Amino acid sequence: MNGQIVIDGMTSGAMIGLGAIGVTLTYGLLRFANFAHGEFATWGAYIALVLASLLGTLLGGADGTIGDLTFGWHLLVALAGSMVLTALLALALDSVLFRRLRRHGSGMVLVIASFGASLALRSLLEFGFTGQPQYYSREIAMTVAIAPGMRATLDQLVVLGVAVALMAGTHLMLTHTALGRAMRATSENPDLARLAGIDVADVVRTTWLLGGAMAAAAGVFLGVTVQLRPTMGFELLLPLFAAAILGGIGSVPGAMAGGMIIGIAEAAAVPIAGAQYRAAVAFVVLLVVLLIKPTGLFGARER
Amino acid sequence: MSVLTVETVVAGYEPGLPIVRGVSFTLSAGEILVLLGPNGAGKSTLAKAVAGLVTISSGTVRLRGVSLAGMAAHDRIRHGVAFVPQTGNVFAGLTVADNLAIAVNILPRAERAGRIAAMLALFPDLAAARRARAGLLSGGQRQMLAIARALAVAPSVLTLDEPSAGLSPKLVGAVMQKLREIRDSGVAILLVEQNARAALAVADRAMILAEGRIAHEGHGASMLDDPAVAGLYLGRRV
């Protein structure tokens, strides 16, 4: 395996990991697979596109670039704004749809509902932005050599750095703050959490906000390093689930590691098996790990 | 003075299918009230109804005269009503220290460290195992952590659902001894048990529940010698 595969795989792996955080946390807490999670990434990417162009219009003039990156500070502001708005979108989807169904329905009803939500959210974007790819910038991405045989665009390196920082921040929040402890406790045992004075509804809301914000970042980063399409999040969905399951449901470090493994496996598959087998190879890795350790790499217990 | 007043409570998991069918009792500070009865009598359901995990369809539960009607479980603990469930009573994936930190989080910041220290002093076994995951503790340590977690907020009412389940006779004795100490510190204890002999040994009063109603009431240890109690509700060998 050459170095280029590693750096390319890590970049897409970091985005998969960011998206998988929301999947693993909502699955761990609410015990259902949210198939609309990929759409949060797509919406995050498009919200940032709109915000960045609004900033350009308001301030009169296109965004410059920072150094040799393809984007400027407009997109960074738009990223922050998009994380907030997508977090609210995730929260809204829960209160309009999932929360009502949780009261009566089974897990399977929720999963099917999330399929419906996914289709609706994606179609709305296609309606508004067409199916044509969009770009944050038309600048040419500069590459730098980071080791013999390893080149990366500056965009990739920044995306990788910010994504890892966001994941590490999420992990520290979960392990070192009262809110994080409450989230882990509720995920493990909701009844006991209630008895310990934790408002489970608050924890559920926080989980949606966090998952939505991280998915938005993944979407923006995918837009920066590849392009924006209404199907981008949906295509990310299976790798997100693979990463979450591989890492162990409920585990943020697991989602991070799972994302990296899936990302690198996908990148490695291209020269070996051809691009059409990209997704398949990730699933072979997933199957092998699950056969050896069914709870995933960081899964502490059976669910 | 009575801390907890339960009046003609009817409760169950599904509407129209009451498991507890009109139970009334009072519980005072510094008192252990033991709730006995055969499986399915409604003991656990009654305990959960007091804790707020099971909906009460009629009747009232009052804490120092204030009704707890409609109050969620996570608010009841803030008002001093603590519950130790029979199973899943510690956060197994979290450390002993984190279990206690979660418990005291509803207290004012200045009191938290003091309460954790008090719990570690009351349960010395836990102090040594602070960094261990709760799921890796022995059965006895786990039960002590479950009690410590509930007691950490200095509740006025402590309800326990079969704390002796799955423990060796020696550990059962240790748990009951702890409950005695906790009672003597002024906490009102509602103890749901199957192990009649061990529970009645520490009971101030006891009630026997059958088919969702109180079938017999008495004063603690004396009930062990009551042939009617032994024969009807506890089985021959008490």
Q: How are the SSEs placed, and which strands pair?
A:
The complex is a heterodimer of chains A (303) and B (238).
Chain A lengths: L2 H28 L6 H23 L13 H32 L2 H23 L13 E5 L2 E4 H23 L1 H11 L1 H6 L4 H26 L6 H16 L4 H22 L4 H15 L11
Antiparallel strand pairs in A: 1-2
Chain B lengths: L1 E10 L8 E9 L3 E5 L6 H9 L4 E8 L2 E2 L5 H4 L4 E4 L11 H9 L4 H14 L1 H5 L10 H13 L5 E5 L7 H16 L3 E5 L3 H7 L2 E6 L2 E6 L8 H8 L4
Helix pairs in contact in B: 3-4, 3-6, 7-8
Which H/E pattern describes the elements of chain A?
HHHHEEHHHHHHH
Looking at CATH, which topology of chain B would you report?
Rossmann fold
Q: Give the largest chain-chain interface (CB within 8 Å).
A: A-B, 19 and 29 residues
The share of residues in extended strands of chain B comes to 25-35%
Low-confidence stretches of chain A: none
User: How large, in whole angstroms, is the Cα Rg of chain A?
Assistant: 19 Å
Quickly count the helices of chain B: 9
Give the integer mean of the pLDDT values of chain A.
90
Spans of at least 5 consecutive residues with low confidence of chain B: none
Query: Cα distance, first to last residue of chain A?
Result: 35 Å
Question: From the coordinates shown, what is the CATH architecture of chain A?
Answer: Orthogonal Bundle
> What do we call the CATH homologous superfamily of chain B?
P-loop containing nucleotide triphosphate hydrolases
Oligomer: heterodimer
CATH topology type of chain A: ABC transporter involved in vitamin B12 uptake, BtuC
Terminal residue distance of chain B: 32 Å
What is the number of independent domains of chain B? 1
Q: Can you summarize the main beta sheet of chain B?
A: 6 strands, mixed
Strand arrangement in the largest pleated sheet of chain A: 1-2
